[in-house]
């Protein structure tokens, strides 16, 4: 398996066609997977905003005030308002905001980014990242690059472990995961609960090449990797019923 | 960045020298990272066991009984006992066991594996995976392969997202994470909380090559990846103080 960053991508602007920007710079082969950082997908889709666009609700005032009193950290209530508007559910509201976005991804601040935004205050995640992935995939096909998988990525922290890793938030042209159930291990035993989230692993691998910051390469081509002959699934985000941690968080609140 | 599985590794037995097995099969270069699945590290270290080795305590009886009554799933109390003995803390005790191992990794059943074990019932994780990684690294150096990073990996599910991914549980010769704080993004803004868990990303990338099951290649060489000129950190596992999810779980219990 080989990963190469797409070199010399320009600063992406609203309306830019990411498939065209990539296709102008690399030759793709059938079976390749292209990972694209959500930052540039969001920029192309015009998902920048300014804090003054968010008139503050009572709930946002309360959240910002509580974070300030508990964490001693100044929180702009307009930013809290932006997070609320991007969220289907707040899982944690203090001392930081952990939110489920409207498309199911769970991330601090609903994935809203305050760096990486020229001329605006904040960058929202793409509205429907799998649709974004599908558009990029079609755009590549129109340029003669058939059968390229596309994964839209974010970087995100997680419970239990320090640090962030690349994760997938949208995908097209390949299943989200490989299902090994029913297959045998080296000793002939049937494998138990073994569903491998290949798109998250592709996103994590790509993030090693992408990097952050000034030298970042927000698109990466993965070559010589195959999904292989396995069952696939497109479930990525757990529902509350499926997730004891989400259930525990519903019954829990930081004491003020 | 390029990843290649180490082909033709034999079934690993207690006392086997993993560094020798790998060094006999591939040429390594300074700066390469070798990922090794914990299954073969555990086998080399003789970490297999049988359920009859675990006389059942009252706590294990209670756990197995409660899982049976809540989840309707038969749970061998000797297996629960094995999990208890491998654990520093149980974070969830019903309807499944989520445990912190004695070296800090949080995993269902303390990472105990019931597949992949010829001639025994269960396979425990290595006792101190970073020491295992260091031994493999030294063993490679003795064979002339200097400056190879080693990451011992497991596959593990996670909150919020379906499926498992490769994660690191031990490492040597490279820091666990890259600290981008204080560096600037493409627009000159300082990056916020940005610590990248590179060893987890390496483990995830390697798991795409490793696969599970009969065709698995439990060791992978990562080439042409650089940690680069960044601050590093060796913190991987969060403590309770550092982890709101762990705090929430301490106050929560599934209703029987």
UniProtKB/TrEMBL annotation, chains A, B:
<keyword id="KW-0342">GTP-binding</keyword>
<dbReference type="GO" id="GO:0046872">
    <property type="term" value="F:metal ion binding"/>
</dbReference>
<feature type="binding site">
    <location>
        <begin position="210"/>
        <end position="217"/>
    </location>
    <ligand>
        <name>GTP</name>
    </ligand>
</feature>
<dbReference type="InterPro" id="IPR023659">
    <property type="entry name" value="F420_ligase_CofE_arc"/>
</dbReference>
<dbReference type="GO" id="GO:0005525">
    <property type="term" value="F:GTP binding"/>
</dbReference>
<feature type="binding site">
    <location>
        <begin position="38"/>
        <end position="39"/>
    </location>
    <ligand>
        <name>GTP</name>
    </ligand>
</feature>
<keyword id="KW-0630">Potassium</keyword>
<keyword id="KW-0460">Magnesium</keyword>
<feature type="binding site">
    <location>
        <position position="113"/>
    </location>
    <ligand>
        <name>a divalent metal cation 1</name>
    </ligand>
</feature>
<dbReference type="Pfam" id="PF01996">
    <property type="entry name" value="F420_ligase"/>
</dbReference>
<feature type="binding site">
    <location>
        <position position="212"/>
    </location>
    <ligand>
        <name>a divalent metal cation 2</name>
    </ligand>
</feature>
<dbReference type="GO" id="GO:0052618">
    <property type="term" value="F:coenzyme F420-0:L-glutamate ligase activity"/>
</dbReference>
<feature type="binding site">
    <location>
        <position position="116"/>
    </location>
    <ligand>
        <name>GTP</name>
    </ligand>
</feature>
<dbReference type="GO" id="GO:0052619">
    <property type="term" value="F:coenzyme F420-1:gamma-L-glutamate ligase activity"/>
</dbReference>
<protein>
    <recommendedName>
        <fullName>Coenzyme F420:L-glutamate ligase</fullName>
        <ecNumber>6.3.2.31</ecNumber>
        <ecNumber>6.3.2.34</ecNumber>
    </recommendedName>
</protein>
<feature type="binding site">
    <location>
        <position position="155"/>
    </location>
    <ligand>
        <name>a divalent metal cation 2</name>
    </ligand>
</feature>
<keyword id="KW-0547">Nucleotide-binding</keyword>
<dbReference type="InterPro" id="IPR008225">
    <property type="entry name" value="F420-0_g-glutamyl_ligase"/>
</dbReference>
<feature type="binding site">
    <location>
        <begin position="9"/>
        <end position="12"/>
    </location>
    <ligand>
        <name>GTP</name>
    </ligand>
</feature>
<feature type="binding site">
    <location>
        <position position="43"/>
    </location>
    <ligand>
        <name>GTP</name>
    </ligand>
</feature>
<comment type="similarity">
    <text>Belongs to the CofE family.</text>
</comment>
<keyword id="KW-0464">Manganese</keyword>
<dbReference type="GO" id="GO:0052645">
    <property type="term" value="P:F420-0 metabolic process"/>
</dbReference>
<dbReference type="InterPro" id="IPR002847">
    <property type="entry name" value="F420-0_gamma-glut_ligase-dom"/>
</dbReference>
<comment type="subunit">
    <text>Homodimer.</text>
</comment>
<feature type="binding site">
    <location>
        <position position="154"/>
    </location>
    <ligand>
        <name>a divalent metal cation 1</name>
    </ligand>
</feature>
<keyword id="KW-0436">Ligase</keyword>
<keyword id="KW-0479">Metal-binding</keyword>
<comment type="function">
    <text>Catalyzes the GTP-dependent successive addition of two or more gamma-linked L-glutamates to the L-lactyl phosphodiester of 7,8-didemethyl-8-hydroxy-5-deazariboflavin (F420-0) to form coenzyme F420-0-glutamyl-glutamate (F420-2) or polyglutamated F420 derivatives.</text>
</comment>
<feature type="domain" description="Coenzyme F420:L-glutamate ligase-like">
    <location>
        <begin position="9"/>
        <end position="224"/>
    </location>
</feature>
<comment type="pathway">
    <text>Cofactor biosynthesis; coenzyme F420 biosynthesis.</text>
</comment>
């Amino acid at each position: 398996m080989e990963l190469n960053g797409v070199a010399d991508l320009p600063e992406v602007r609203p309306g830019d066609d990411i498939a065209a920007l990539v296709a102008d710079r690399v030759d793709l082969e059938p079976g390749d997977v292209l990972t694209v950082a959500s930052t540039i997908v969001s920029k192309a889709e015009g998902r920048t905003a300014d804090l003054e666009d968010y008139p503050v609700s009572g709930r946002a005032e309360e959240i910002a005030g509580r974070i300030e009193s508990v964490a001693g950290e100044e929180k702009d209530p307009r930013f809290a308002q932006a997070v609320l508007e991007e969220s289907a559910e707040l899982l944690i509201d203090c001392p930081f905001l952990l939110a489920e976005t409207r498309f199911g991804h769970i991330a601090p601040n609903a994935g809203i980014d305050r760096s990486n935004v020229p001329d605006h205050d904040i960058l929202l995640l793409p509205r429907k990242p799998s649709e974004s992935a599908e558009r990029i995939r079609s755009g590549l096909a129109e340029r003669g690059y058939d059968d390229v998988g596309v994964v839209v990525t974010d970087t995100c922290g997680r419970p239990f472990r320090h640090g962030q890793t690349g994760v997938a938030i949208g995908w097209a042209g390949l299943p989200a995961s490989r299902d090994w159930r029913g297959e045998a291990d080296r000793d002939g035993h049937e494998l138990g609960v073994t569903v491998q989230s290949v798109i998250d692993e592709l996103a994590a691998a790509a993030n090693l090449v992408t990097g952050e910051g000034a030298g970042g390469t927000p698109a990466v081509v993965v070559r010589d990797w195959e999904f292989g002959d396995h069952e696939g699934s497109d479930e990525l985000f757990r529902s509350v019923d499926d997730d004891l941690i989400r259930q525990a968080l519903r019954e829990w609140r930081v004491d003020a």
